[in-house]
Design goal:
The protein contains eleven helices and 15 strands. It has 338 residues and is of the alpha/beta class. The chain has a domain of 212 residues: Rossmann fold (3-Layer(aba) Sandwich), CATH 3.40.50. Helix 9 crosses helix 11. The two termini are 30 Å apart.
């Protein structure tokens, strides 16, 4: 069975690629490398013994995508490709709407033309917006509050409409919480361009000496230690969730959403202290004012994924911290272009 991964050379895509290969699937990657590295392909081969087929294309480019579908007998699509920084989306909303929505529409058009009926979408907990509860469940209203989150929310609605129109279409919406960690080999991991937007890569860059100190945005939230609480999930657990979603799509039609999280909230200081303890590394930090739009606390209710997909997380917070540091130590400057 041949699976197309759009954005498959990225952080989550590359880990999912490994999980798919090790589960017996054939993988085709479409990526324009705007936020990823060609070196990932050789790392994937080093881990699995298989180098996936690569198309170096912009997924929004319908002509290039059509050529891919014409050459490859694609059985299912997992759609990761898209811009993903909340702050940047507020500065460049048009760019985010154009890119993230266009890639999805191009995919749906090619899937219809080539009779591909299975679609797994990389969505986000940001679709819930400023919810009035801290434990997020799938039947809550979606009300994203920034352009990045709205692109995910709008795409979810596009996919729901597509599945209503085509009763043979199977769509699985995977709402991620906060992926961290890396493959246990240390060969692939999170490799953000420029200054990291997320907590763990910032911590590892401080630990390796690339950054002077960590900024903790606010310590006066109504949480146990005053810092923001989030649901952090190991990227390899997240990758396994995509395989479970793919298997679900083989036997089910329509559109279903699933939270992919641990169901446990950890604060910023929980992460810092666990990282220091597990890796015996000190992380200097300074407390700065809260960021606009940051919520005090939220985490997933992952019961639906367990009950329907048979999926649950296996990795601990200690695993997440150890694997993140192993990746950064082995690759202090990220991927070396080959």
């Amino acid at each position: 069975m041949k699976i197309l991964l759009t954005g498959g050379a990225g952080y989550i895509g590359s880990h999912t690629c490994i999980e798919l290969i090790e589960s017996g699937y054939e993988v085709v990657i479409a990526d324009d490398f705007s936020n990823s590295s060609m070196a990932v392909l050789k790392r994937i081969k080093e881990i699995t013994g298989v180098e996936p087929t690569l198309y170096n294309i912009d997924v929004a480019d319908i002509a290039s995508l059509d050529e891919l579908f014409a050459k490859e007998k694609i059985d299912a699509v997992i759609h990761f490709a898209g811009f993903k920084a909340v702050g940047e989306s507020c500065e460049k909303p048009t760019m985010y709407y154009r890119n993230n929505i266009d890639t999805t529409l191009s995919l749906l058009e090619c899937m219809e033309k080539y009779n591909v009926k299975r679609f797994v979408f990389s969505s986000s907990a940001t679709v819930y917006g400023n919810a009035d509860r801290v434990e997020y469940v799938e039947d809550m209203p979606t009300n994203a509050v920034n352009p990045y989150g709205r692109t995910k929310m709008f795409i979810e609605h596009i996919l729901m409409d597509a599945s209503c129109a085509d009763k043979e279409l199977s769509v699985v919406l995977l709402r991620y919480f906060n992926p961290i960690g890396a493959h246990e080999s240390g060969l692939i991991g999170d490799n953000p361009n420029g200054i990291p937007n997320n907590l763990m890569p910032y911590i590892t860059q401080v630990a390796v000496g690339k950054r002077e100190r960590l900024s903790v945005f606010g310590n006066d939230y109504p949480t146990p230690d005053g810092t923001g609480v989030r649901d952090y999930i190991h990227v390899c657990d997240l990758a396994a969730g995509h395989v479970a979603a793919l298997r679900y799509s083989e036997k089910n039609r329509g559109c279903e959403a699933f939270n992919l999280g641990t169901g446990v909230g950890y604060s910023v200081m929980d992460i810092v202290k666990t990282f220091e303890r597990v890796n015996n590394v000190k992380i200097p930090y300074v407390v700065t004012p809260r960021r606009d739009g940051d919520l005090p606390e939220y985490y997933a209710n992952p019961a639906k994924a367990l009950n329907v997909l048979g999926w649950k997380t296996e990795k601990t917070l200690e695993d997440m911290c150890a694997d993140s540091w192993r990746w950064q130590m082995k690759n202090p400057n990220g991927y070396t272009e080959e």
